[in-house]
User: Fold Peptidase aspartic putative domain-containing protein from Nephila pilipes.
Amino acid sequence: MYKTPTGEQSVTASTNKIDILKYNFVHLQTARVFITDPTGVTELSRCLLDGGSQCSFFSSDLVNSLKLPFISNRPLEFQAFESPSRFTQTRRQVQFQLSSIWDKSKINTIAFESLNKYASYPPPPTEVSYFAKNKRLKLADPDESLSTYQLRF
Assistant:
């Protein structure tokens, strides 16, 4: 605590030096997907694949641009990892269909609408791209302009 020029007491907080020059990303599995709305309009987007998640989320802007139908409003309970506190919020749910380009199989999916905005996903590190090129491997997320598509699903 210290006194301000007007004599009031104030509290300051300090942190250790943070090295912002080093990039520490956790690369999660993503996929570029074509999503088609009920009228046949298709958009290229990016989805985050999280097999451990209890439910799916769809960004509000994508719900609106694809005019996806809302099927219900449901309470959703949130709890951060290693946090004792929780909160509940009512969210709209949408239904859509995913289809495979490989075997034409289809699956109906329900997701909660998400108001969050996600940052662009960083391209693979140079050494990974170089290794893949030398081994003639095709990366799921190659280092190209499409890798900057916003995560919306």
